[in-house]
Write a structure and sequence with these properties.
Blueprint: H1 2-6, H2 25-32, H3 36-52, E1 57-63, H4 72-82, E2 88-91, H5 93-103, E3 109-110, H6 117-122, E4 125-128, E5 131-134, H7 135-149, E6 157-158, H8 160-178, H9 185-192, E7 196-197, H10 205-215, E8 221-222, H11 224-240, E9 244-250, H12 253-260, H13 262-269, E10 279-284, H14 298-303, E11 315-319, H15 322-336, H16 349-366
Parallel strand pairs: 1-2, 1-9, 2-7, 6-8, 9-10, 10-11
Antiparallel strand pairs: 3-5, 4-5
Helix pairs in contact: 2-15, 3-15, 4-9, 4-15, 7-10, 8-9, 11-13, 11-16
Length: about 375
């Protein structure tokens, strides 16, 4: 009987040390986060530090939900980019738009979610749950976006990586003028050569301002096919260089799908050999049983070829609020892992796409 029991009782004994204020964040997570979603968080932290941040792993992050208005762009994403822990990003346009407020030194304030929004509207105050800010913040940010996108550099067809890279370039110059630094995802990504994509370029205030320019016959023309091929090329390139691919998914939605669809694009559409992403971490509050992509599990992603079935044990879903998990995950990684050299994938996009295209065309000729 003892032998039959042993296989089930082989896990570490739950015997935590008292929380006494003596441990750093990583030490606290390792010693006290031992069950339920606390343990899932510990598993995600360890997966990131012990495997995902290996030198040969290209790491992509997807950002959905109102992360940047809550300050997580500045406090978490900027720090991870500068440490070389994030190599490419897919975000909602809204996150990148509200990120601009910080680079323009425009104020967002802590407030209450229990307020009368009719009065806020009358007083010219905008609310994102318990974040409050002046309506003028939107108007000033819109004016910056439109003025920037009027520049000659934008008067052509481009993908969203180039759009955000150029926007980050202008934003970095404005930060220098204002005397602020390391406040903004886009300016940091520009400085570090991290390509930033959005899967729905029209679905944000950045897209709305591009639409205004369209009516005036100026501004960029966004080609989403460039984004699909570039993101697939990033993942394909990582694998072709005998490396691995990891995904860090905050929330779900379209950014999650856009990041994961790189593998079906490589395998299903282009017909090139690959097995799926190697490492998968998701932070979500979405249920899997409703059938939505936001709650879809990594096991389900295996059936689509999005996740390597052999690597399914290296997949963790933390069911929790991103505003709680993201700072803890970042602190753990920064405490336990040295900075990695910046890959500067933006500078290599042409090379990576050319490799993908060459292998695809060669495969077609062999058919």
């Amino acid at each position: 009987m003892a032998d039959k029991k042993s296989k089930w009782l082989a896990g570490n004994r739950i015997r935590p040390k008292a929380v006494d204020g003596s441990r750093d964040v990583a030490g606290l997570i390792d010693s006290a986060f031992l069950a339920y979603n606390g343990r899932r968080l510990q598993e995600a932290c360890r997966l990131m530090v012990e495997k995902m941040l290996a030198d040969d792993c290209v790491v992509g992050a997807s950002l959905s939900g109102a992360m940047t208005p809550a300050g997580l762009g500045q406090s978490v994403i900027v720090s991870l980019i500068r440490a070389g822990f994030l190599d490419w990003i897919v975000s909602t346009g809204a996150n990148l738009y509200h990120d601009l407020h910080y680079g323009l030194d425009l104020a967002l304030h802590q407030g209450s979610h229990e307020v009368d929004d009719r009065i806020l509207r009358q007083d010219g105050v905008v609310r994102i749950y318990d974040i409050l800010f002046d309506y003028e913040v939107l108007l000033e940010t819109d004016a910056f976006v439109r003025k920037t996108l009027e520049a000659d550099e934008f008067r052509k067809e481009m993908g969203t990586a180039e759009l955000h890279y150029l926007l980050g370039k202008f934003l970095a110059a404005r930060e220098d003028e204002l005397g602020v630094r390391d406040t903004c995802v886009l300016s940091t990504a520009y400085r570090c050569g991290v390509p930033c994509y959005t899967s729905s370029p029209g679905d944000s205030s950045i897209g709305m301002n591009m639409a205004e320019l369209e009516l005036r016959g100026i501004g960029p023309k966004i080609n989403p096919s460039l984004c699909v091929n570039e993101t697939a090329a990033i993942v394909y390139g990582a694998k072709k260089d005998s490396g691995r691919s990891g995904v860090l998914i905050f929330g779900g939605g379209s950014p999650k799908n856009f990041m994961l669809q790189t593998e079906p694009q490589i395998q299903e559409v282009l017909g090139l050999d690959d097995a799926g992403h190697d490492y998968f971490i998701q932070v979500t509050d979405a249920r899997p049983d409703t059938g939505g992509l936001s709650g879809a599990t990594p096991a389900e992603a295996v059936s689509w070829g999005k996740v390597d079935p052999e690597k399914l044990p290296d997949a963790v879903v933390v069911y929790a609020d991103t505003t709680i998990v993201a700072p803890l995950l970042a602190a753990y990684a920064l405490e336990r892992h040295p900075n990695r050299p910046l890959r500067r994938l933006y500078d290599r996009l042409g090379e990576l796409v050319n490799r993908l295209k060459a292998d695809f065309l060669e495969r077609r000729q062999l058919q």
